[in-house]
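Reply to dn_fold:

You asked what the input looked like. This is it:
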Amino acid sequence: MKILITGGAGFIGVNSAYYFAKKGHRVVIFDNLSREGSGKNLKWIQGECEIVFFKGDLRKFVDLVDVFSNNGKFDLILHLAAQVAVTTSVTDPYDDFEINALGTFNLLEATRRYSRNAAFIYSSTNKVYGEMEDLNIIKNNGRYMYQDLSEGVDENRNLDFHSPYGCSKGAADQYCRDYHRIYGLKTIVLRQSCIYGYRQFGIEDQGWVAWFCIATALGKPITIYGDGKQIRDVLFIDDLIKAFELAYKNRNKTAGQIFNIGGGPENTMSLHELIESLEKQKGEKIPVSYDDWRPGDQKVFVGNIAKAKKELGWEPTVNPAEGVEMLYKWVTDNKNLFH
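and this is what came back:
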């Protein structure tokens, strides 16, 4: 295959590029290297694999024309480039919109014009469902949970974009779906939950599992926004890449569809539970401080992944305890990357 990965020097992108390049596929990474750690990730993968790097910006249509013109038609386009933090979107909604909404539109148009037979996988988010204030949330054993949705939120849930980030990603989500309906593109939308794993340069505002691991390893202060009982279904990076691969392999069936991709109800973790896990690994108490809830922060998000299990034959294989242990070990073994 010939694969284009936007945001290919980011956390998910570089792991995906490594996986597919090692399988012998031709991988083109498109990235503007603005994200913290992307330069380090690019240097690493260039030393590990034969990939093509194209420095460009999704907001500039001419950059996309260049990458398609220089590389011809693609079999798979993995659209992972994004502005990724809710807090940043609140501070600078204009930039957030241009990257997430306009950038995705530009890529869809470039695909329609120059590579319309490619499978196009879009990395969407559970934030398109909003705060889901109508759902009953209860506390049980020090964690929040849905009172009535034991299997989590499914893809039929009404969309309710909340925060500029939710709006920009949600607009892109729906544009991807509609480009299948109107133009016949093989677009596949994956609404991802919390993804974590190797080469993730998490920060306080985004990538909370990685950030807690990094802060713990380096002795940096950790602030919990809210009460720490909030729950997410979490998914290790290796399992996400398998979902990408299966979505592509089943592209004639998955085109035009939307899937929740996350840990599901069997792989959930609260902020407090992550701290407890890291305390066991470090062998000492980790001091934390608390601050107010952040805008758009859900007390619970657990995705119902039954559709992906049924139609893709996919399910998570790495549980949170294993995944956090592997990530924390990687961080402690690579502390030099975080200075």
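The chain has one domain: 2-338.
Hope that clears it up.
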